## 1
Amino acid sequence: MDNKPLLQERPPAYSPAAQGAGYDYGQSNYGAIPAPQPGFQPPPPYPYPGAAAAAGYAVPPPTSQPAYSSTYTIIQQPATTTSVVVVGGCPACRVGVLEDTFTCLGVLCAIVFFPIGILFCLALRQRRCPNCGAAFG
């Protein structure tokens, strides 16, 4: 076991310490400005502007405020509305998305005039809305 002697003294009390025994926790003037130290001289107070003129200093004359008109203009900008533009959206109903379909003439040209006919088939596409059925192009 330990050979430490047991604490024979009582621990300090929880009440504030007595005056002159270190820190004073019970101060009621916490944050107050302390009294000046001996031999300290505070600076003299600043003189008023009238006293400066009496002492021979030239005081500039007071300047007046610039005259502003009492009317003013408020410019109110219109609120910006954001619109979402769907690429490939139907211009008629604004809900559906246009789908590409090949016309009968385009498919016939692709078969009859095989190499060049594919270009005709692509040129003769028709865009159709599945929501409202409108055809474009």
Note: The first helix runs from residue 49 to 54.
## 2
Amino acid sequence: MRIWDSSTWMQVGERWKGHTDFVFMIALNPAGTLLASASGDQQVRLWRLSDRRTIAIFKHPNQVFCVNFSADGKHVLSGGRDDMISKWAVPLLGDVPEDQLSNDALREDTLKEHAANLAQQSDCEILVIN
């Protein structure tokens, strides 16, 4: 992902590294501190804007096309090719150990495991759409 200055059409800062396929949608949380991105790589990534680090990765069984935050900013809602909407709890930054925050897409195994553990603690709901 890249950020562009709309007045100059120049890229701002370095490219955000993490997704390995197209990003279809991004969403900003109500507080303006987190960004969620939905990608063809079957992931929703949660980014901290202040340092552009991935703080959580939510895995889908197929491509993810849409993402948004709940009105209170406590959940991420995402949907994709599997015709389901998933509701994920946004982890508090205190819940993610600092050594697991990383810019490096190759160091995400522990983040995936941590996000999966958080989701399995009944904070993830899956809704089926017909």
Note: Strands lie at 3-5, 10-12, 23-28, 34-39, 43-48, 53-59, 64-69, 75-80, 84-89, 125-128.
## 3
Amino acid sequence: MMKWERLNDNGFTTANKIVNMRISEQFQDNKLEIACDNSATEPEKPTPKYNEELDNCCAELLETLKQMTKIQMKMEKLTSTTKAICDLETFHHGAGNCKAPFFHTWPTSYFYEVCLKLSEMYKKELQLKQTIVQDIAHSADQDLMMVYLSSWLYQPYIDNSSMLLLEAMLLETGHRQC
């Protein structure tokens, strides 16, 4: 999760650069339109020039999204593995409790439920970030670009309970001591 948060911060910084470049371009275009209207000698609009810095930022944001996708895929694999362990436990021990628990106090089925909940949160968040990456550099609406930035930063699909759940999982597995 720390890696996800670091990538989220890096992605926000990159997305912020993209939005600032787009707003700056719009401001320059508006100044050019006003200048063209005042001179009225050249009826053609200037063709938009290629912005290499914007392209580099878009590539960087796309790479950040790819790294986040890898993390989310690992979460799905962990969830799938935990589900398989639950199924194996049920098959081996039937409906009764397992004699040797895998975790300190949680049954395996609860561990699976928590994994699934976290995985679904991050999956929805990743889908939102994919939409943002696809649209942020192409939007002409400044308000929409600000919503994209806010959504990237505040991660609306990730509950506040996610860090608590993760800490509890680490305690249950013995990876974190009290």
Note: DSSP finds five helices and no strands in the chain.
## 4
Amino acid sequence: MLASRAFSLIGKRAISTSICVRAHGHAGVVKAEDFSLPAYVDRRDVPLPEVAFVRDLSAQQKALKEKEKASWTALSVDEKVELYRIKFNESYAEMNRGSNEWKTVLGGVLFFLGVTGVILIWQKHYMYGPIPHTFSDEWLSAQTKRMLDMRINPVEGITSQWDFEKNEWKK
């Protein structure tokens, strides 16, 4: 029963999202965007987008587009800017303007480095035991003395550097 209920909910959800999506707070139904149609994109490497930024022109914008077909010397600077804004959302200067995103990225990197440091300190304190006694200076000197007494690797090893007659390291 639970499985059939889950499958029915999943099926209803898949059908409802593929056909249309309800708008939040609106009575109408908003259709899903068709991604096979050309879309507007502001990018420096694509200087001319496939479609204009403003698709549905107002009456004032339509009149301006009709005025555009005549001589451009008759247009004012504000009208030229308005025509530009119909076609493009941002200019190159606005696209090249710096953002503060680097601060967020740097903050995230430093946060995760700090979390990693805390984890490493916690592991060293609680997970690892004390340093083995074989790392002490006394143990290492006793081990070296034992290797010399056993004459381990006398041709190229540690005992080749030891002078057994003077009982000291060769110079």
Note: The longest helix spans residues 101-127.
